[in-house]
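stuck on this:

***
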Amino acid sequence: MNLVRYYAAKVLAVLRTELLIARRAERPEAGVVVIPGSVRSGPVLFDFSNPALVHLGDQLFHVPLAEHLAARGIEVFVDTPSLKQTFAAVGAKVGAPGTPPLLVLSKKDAAPECTSRFPESTFLGIHYGLLKTEEQIALAIARITLAELRKLGVGAGSTSEVPYQMDLRVAQPEQPTWLAKVRALEPGKGLIAWNGYLGSGHFAGQRRKGELEEKVRELRGAGYRIVHLGSAGEKSADRASYPFVDLDLRGEIPPDEAVPFMALPEVVGVLSFDTFLTHAATVANKKIWVVMRRKGNAQQFRQRFVPFVPGKEHLLVWFV
């Protein structure tokens, strides 16, 4: 993704959102906006159709809630271009519904797009960084959404019933080319997935890449094998060499196969910035070595996002 276009789109989305919510939105708590609709029944839609606004890691934060709603017989759709198998594995339907949803859930800055697509539906937007809560983010999303559904007349249980352990039951894809390469690698003390790329927070994170690479060299020296992950675009734009990498799988594992990769018994965990792969390792119950992209709010990020669900705090083994 071109960073200039990315940040320009973010700024435009923020401006459009603020103009919209100033006219129409309710604010039940800090970081939450609700734009009421006229629909009184229908499915729940998680609208992640714009990946520039709702990143892959953001989408994973909603997996426990999707599983909870589907298990209670509530029709839940997830419109995502990249994590179709992940959400289907917990009982959600993939894509947009054919009828107007009762509730559309997304990031706050997606309000203009979502209300344009579904003008009759109630929109619920959350700005994670503005929430005044100490809850982990998956719990906060569930609490806020369940409360809004109750206001709309849908009883969907409580946050204590949400399955934060996320037993995804994601099947391994059939004979992916990357799997044979993993199996051929002598595992040493185990495989650690390493990724040093950033989309959001790129400029702040660049100042901390040295800490990340220092740690990956340390782990390689301790006998772990390093698997380099990232997109094909990140690989083509990266002219650096990484002599400590044992297997380069950049561009070979699509997002929907990240959790199955992490779930392999050979994989011990992930070393990364606080990005999608960190959250995929959380889903798969693997260890996390993480460098926060911004030092200033590191403690808040650790409390809310790493890990992003309650009950998995033991997975975090290194945090700076």
Notes: The longest strand covers residues 267-273.
